[in-house]
What does this fold into?
Amino acid sequence: MTLNVWSRGFSRCRESRGSWAGLEVTVRRVPTLCGLRARESEFLHVWGGKQPSTEMWVFRTIGVTRCSAGVSSLARCLHTCPVLEGVTKANLSKLRKKTGFTFVNCKKALEKFENDLEQAEKWLKEQAQKEGWAKATKLQDRQTAQGLVGVAQEGTMATMVEVNCETDFVARNPKFHQLVTQVAIATLADVKAHPQWTLGWLKALHTGDELKQLQVGDTTLADLTALTIGNLGENIQIRRAMYYSVPPIPTKHIGVYVHAPVAGTTGSCALGKYGALVAFRRKNTEFQNFNAAELGRRLGQHVVGMNPLTVGEMPEIREEEVEKKDEDGDKQDEEEGSTDSDENETQMLRQTFLLDPTMSVGEMVRQQGIELLDFVRFECGEVEES
It folds into this structure.
């Protein structure tokens, strides 16, 4: 087989012949004034015959002064590799978009598997997985105070997860968003996989170690986390998840709310720095234009903003209590006032409603004909009290 090499040069000899790398080599000079005007930094494609078995690239101008010099210059200036029929810009671009890996790694993978895109993609992911686990082990002791809260809901079921990272810069990365979304959807699928959980009340907190074993397709959340660590170079930890559901009857509802939402997140999973789940029951079915989703969102917004500790009791003012209070001394008034103030600050039903300061939460739910049952609040990076 003859390898034809077209190069740019200014030598007197127009053509030189010899052997190199087991091939018959013909080096032909292309004068500067001809159609080929490549710059020194550009690659010139070199081919041999109609179906070459070798692909070569010229790294600099080859000056050919005589036959032997031309072939020896060729050996110093060229690099050989197996020709990949489909390793074109389009195929490399396709593999890069699908996997997100570098040009060099994608080309290496295609060369290794002779242009088999499926095998190349599989190999790239395996290599990235190995590198990710190595980085995860190395970075596992680093503090993770940033991150996101993810909320996924389907009917009367919902899950809320927290995934932490080291910096806010990584927390804004789309790959990190994808991981948090996968964790939230995986936990919701885990709830749906247990019918006994979906038929009654469920409120269960799961730790990160438990969540890492959940399956996502043919892999686990632990492997996906390691892969993300390898891509982003920071320690990432799945911290916790709350499984939440109410009996699937028309009067039971779950409201969800995420504060400081991440732009571009899908409706099935919302991401943000704060999240809340609120369970409530519709007591009066005579109200028209009842919007459970909007009411749940407003209650969740109050939970995030006011941070109540308990649901509490519905505030009621009785006439005998007012008379007794008037007869008591100043000291007793101060003590009772202090106690009431503490209850108003920590009990949700006694708190001033965040979206309407003219009424309490208890008065608002009474007007809407609902009963507040329970709530859960997540704040990303919060320190839990022991």
Observations:
- Residues 49 and 226 are 47 Å apart (CA to CA).
- DSSP finds 13 helices and 16 strands in the chain.
